[in-house]
Specification:
The protein is an all-alpha fold. About 75% of the residues lie in helices and about 0% in strands.
Amino acid sequence: MSRRNMNGCHPAQPSTGPGQIIPAMSTPLASIFGSGFLVIVPVLASGVGPYAVLAMLAISVIAFQTGAIVRHNILCAEPVLAAGNKKLTVMLERASDAALVLAYIVSVCLYLHILSAFALGRLELDSEFNKSLLTSILVVLITLVGLFGGLAPLERLEQLALYLTLAVVLVLILGFALHDVDLFLETGYLPLPKMPDRSFWEILTIVSGTLIVVQGFETPRYLGQRFDTWTRIRASRWSQYCALSVYIVFVIVTLPIVPVLNGQYEDNSLIKLTVSVSFLLSMPLILAAALSQFSAAVADTLAAVSNLGEVTRGRLHPRWGYLLVGVATLVLAWTGSTFTVIALASRAFALYYLLQCLVAFSVCGNHRERVRFALVAIALGFILIFAVPVS
């Protein structure tokens, strides 16, 4: 996005200090880290084995290009939508809002599924039935709190969860890196997981199902009441810079430890990887997992209810919104494993991002940028249609 001409828009960029950008980054960062750092390594190792870092890079490129489209829409589509003089843009945005509700509902289920997997894994009770049962109990709890008091007070968990998650991720990176160095000095090489017996098509569809792990960069699009346009654009961009860099480094330092799993990849495999390096790291990891996933589930429940209000143009009372989100999440909680929900969530967000591509296309007069939007839309369409879970 250039200063002179941003996809056909001619913005004036006021200076935005860190005092504004850092608070604006907390929501997207919490969402991005909440989405995937706990499961990204076993998913990629199961799908592509020693090429997990390359797969993570590919996911990051697609995510960043998609984020650029969301940032384009903050600048160029929002004024058009406010004016309401382009019916096609308004229609696409409403369809996008409806798709986002669906995506948030699936992501709520995903967050609570991951929370259940980590909590039960430590107790060695992580059967599919137990995970679905605990997920359902948490869904009912969140729904009841929403129905009778609202979830706004629980939003305060977001920043605490973010700080704890970041601290744990950085400690894990340091601990895993030191382990890798010691292992290399001792043996002269670093082991890598074996390449699974998969076709190129299987690998492509499995990697496509991991888009959800970097989801969250779109949240500044909906923070217009709290932050100005350029603060939101920069917060989205810098949250992606930060999160994607950490993800790539995390996969790099974790990959040499993955062979201890002996090819048995589960949604809470990170616990086993952590224990193999240091037993003391496992408890902070589980605490961070519980807090980050619960906080993210609360945030996405609130977002889903808010978007439902917009989709129904205020006709749906928030209480009914909480009930609808809760019931839909309960149904999803019993539909499959965490890996299945990850792929489903990726497809749901791919639909939302695809519609955002069409919104951007409808307001953009720059033909070169339109080509870029179309290419990203094709990639998202592939994810929407063909993404599958790791099996």
